[in-house]
Q: What sequence folds into this?
């Protein structure tokens, strides 16, 4: 099999038994497996062969395994899914997140954080999605999916994103239907006017293509009604990103008296998806902590990755997960909200789990204890004692990131 043949020379000393009897490419032993779809949260082994999950069970024999990874004391989870990122990178000046310098190539930022699937949200519209596919999707080892911008020209910033005449629901839906293997939603963002038109046209396109809408809402004075957005404009399954932000022109979910807006939990119960979308200006402890304490945990955890967030308080998906781990979510919750939950939101049930026969996208994480500082987008620091780091990432059963060489044989003089 490809994985065995490719690594046979370098791993000769790790063979267990004769080559002809081997039936498992890679065996992960002794880790805490968290797989929400299958209701697993216990010490298990994971066997991988031909790039797929072959078996998940306690104490699988290593006799027929070509390669064994000891995951004792670590978490073994499905490859993480970052449902909000910006990856339409290019060289066009003044194009913000559409074929520009501000977006980022996926492979440089995904695998080291345990991410195997990344979703660009709104970088491309129907006019330039095929350029994005040629430049980014077709040349990335990371699985790259996309929310198509309701603006035909994509997220190019400024006046381009204010052009109501370029928000065509029919043409957007047609492009989404042309590429269903890549386009998983519709995005509306950065509109400054008092009209509901961008949201309404995005929802119309979402209905035509049978995919969800993600809304980056606000920036209008006086603000449009957040309650109306949740209860009237969006459908169950649509996504409210930057849920813990407090920005000018948008009602925040925690009011000035630190109380959760009464309709927020009703909206979540209705099926509105609350997404973190940390970014460079959209995550405040003043919002997140009281919201979680009052029952509003996010449905999905994401980064809003771009050059303006990666070197600030956001850093990576694992860092965002670690923040939430320290302010009220459990380990099982943060894993689920970055694996199986987003897979369901984007209607990709083949992702985000370790079922037998599934693609072997796997992250081995270490949860470490210590004294850590986490920064929000206003610059406030929160002291925490838990942090997640990625030891190993597999994409289709192949090692694409190995922090400390746990998949490699020991050097001998």
A:
């Amino acid at each position: 099999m490809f994985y065995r043949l490719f690594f046979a020379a370098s791993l000769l000393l790790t063979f267990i038994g004769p080559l002809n009897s081997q039936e498992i490419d890679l065996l992960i032993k002794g880790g805490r497996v968290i797989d929400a779809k299958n209701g697993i949260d216990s010490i298990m082994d994971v066997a991988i062969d031909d790039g797929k999950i072959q078996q998940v069970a306690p104490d699988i024999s290593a006799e027929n395994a070509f390669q064994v990874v000891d995951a004792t004391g670590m978490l073994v989870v499905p490859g993480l899914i970052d449902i909000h990122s910006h990856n339409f990178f290019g060289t066009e000046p003044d194009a913000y997140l559409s074929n520009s310098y501000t977006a980022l190539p996926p492979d440089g930022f995904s695998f080291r954080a345990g991410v195997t699937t990344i979703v660009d949200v709104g970088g491309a519209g129907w006019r330039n999605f095929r350029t994005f596919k040629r430049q980014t999707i077709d040349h990335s080892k990371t699985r790259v999916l996309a929310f198509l911008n309701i603006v035909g020209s994509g997220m190019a910033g400024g006046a381009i994103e204010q052009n109501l005449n370029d928000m065509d629901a029919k043409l957007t839906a047609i492009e989404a239907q042309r590429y269903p293997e890549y386009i998983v939603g519709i995005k509306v963002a950065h509109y400054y006017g008092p009209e509901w038109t961008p949201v309404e046209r995005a929802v119309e396109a979402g209905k035509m293509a049978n995919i969800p809408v993600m809304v980056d809402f606000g920036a209008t004075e006086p603000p449009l009604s957040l309650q109306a957005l949740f209860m009237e404009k969006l459908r169950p399954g649509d996504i409210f990103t930057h849920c813990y932000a407090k920005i000018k022109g948008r009602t925040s979910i925690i009011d000035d008296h630190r109380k959760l807006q009464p309709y927020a939990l009703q909206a979540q119960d209705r099926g509105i998806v609350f997404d973190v979308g940390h970014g460079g200006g959209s995550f405040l402890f003043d919002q997140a902590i009281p919201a979680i304490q009052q029952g509003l945990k996010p449905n999905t955890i994401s980064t809003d990755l771009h050059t303006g967030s990666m070197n600030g308080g956001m850093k990576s998906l694992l860092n965002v997960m670690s923040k939430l781990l320290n302010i009220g979510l459990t380990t099982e919750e943060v894993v689920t909200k970055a694996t199986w939950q987003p897979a369901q939101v984007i209607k990709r049930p083949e992702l985000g789990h370790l079922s037998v026969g599934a693609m072997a996208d796997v992250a081995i994480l270490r949860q470490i204890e210590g004294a850590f500082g986490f920064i929000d987008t206003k610059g406030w620091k929160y002291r925490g004692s838990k942090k997640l780091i990625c030891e190993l990432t597999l994409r289709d059963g192949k090692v694409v990131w190995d922090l400390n060489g746990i998949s490699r044989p020991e050097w001998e003089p």
